[in-house]
Structures are given as C-alpha cells and as structure tokens.
Amino acid sequence: MKLQDSLIIEAPVDAVWAFILDIPRVSACVPGAEGVNQTEPDAYRGKLKAKVGAVKAAFEGEAKIEEKISPQKLSASFKAQDRALASIVTGAFSVQLTPIAAGTQLDYQMDITMRGRLATMGFAVVQQSAKKITAEFAACLSAALAESPPPV
Asked: Which backbone phi and psi does 71 adopt, to 5 degrees?
C-alpha cells in the first residue's frame, strides 16, 4: 500500500530539517508514539498506539534511517508488530523538503506492507487513519517550530 501527501510548514527548510533529525522532538509530534530510544547510530526502537477504524493497535518496532541528503531528503525503513492483533507492518518512507515562499513544502511517501488481522481493514480505513495522524503531526511540528526553532 502506498501513501503520499504534501504539507506546508511555515518555517525555513534548515529549521524543518534540524527538527526531523531531532528524534526526541519529532517523535513527540507523532500521535501515539512513546518510548522511542536510539539503539545504534540512525536506528531507533519504540511503540506506536493508533486507532485504525474501530480497532486499537499497539505496535512495537524499529526504524532505521537509510539515507540523509541534507537538508532536502530523508529515507528510512521500519518494521513493527502488534502481538494482540497478530499483525506485522513493514515498509519504507521518504521525506523531501523544498523551500517555498511560505516556508517549506514537505512531501512524503510511504510504502507499507501489512500482514495479519490489521491487513483485513482495507486501504481506505488505513489511509484515513494515516491522514489523521499526519495532520496532527504537521500541526505539532508547526507549533513546535514556531515556539522554539531548533538551531540551524
């Protein structure tokens, strides 16, 4: 399943780039993320609780940054499991930052594979949940950058 969207962030590209590389700050903006810890350079473990349709999921997993092209592109892979739902989610995502008059255009793409009970939910339900999480993330990121921009 592929998901993609664009967000406008009212901050310069360098500030957005510094923010997305500050994993404690960026994970605080991901709704449902908790216990995110670095396990090795560019590798992290954590939990994500999310509501997908009528189902509450609690994934534990890891993410690894695969590529960084400062200050414009970041690519990562991830794998997570929800034991209660007997579901596994794997995939990759990339973020592209482009300077625009209003600040930064953030384009993202995710390629997700789901197995288990969660996979039976269907693309439309998962996409709706992902869009909600993304909108909340964008609002948090914009607010955090407005309050206290990271050093660039």
From this structure: -105, 45
pTM of the model: 0.85
Instruction: Specify if 152 maps to a domain.
Output: no
Residue 31, SS3 per DSSP? coil
Residue 115 bridge partners (DSSP)? 88
Q: How many domains does the chain have?
A: 1
Kindly state whether residue 120 falls inside one of the protein's structural domains: yes
Rounded-to-integer distance, Cα 33 and Cα 151, Å: 24
Round to whole Å and give the CA distance between 66 and 93.
Answer: 10
Domain holding 141, by residue range, is 2-147
**Longest CA span, the chain:** 46
Digit-coded pLDDT (tens) for 46-65: 999 988 888 899 999 999 99
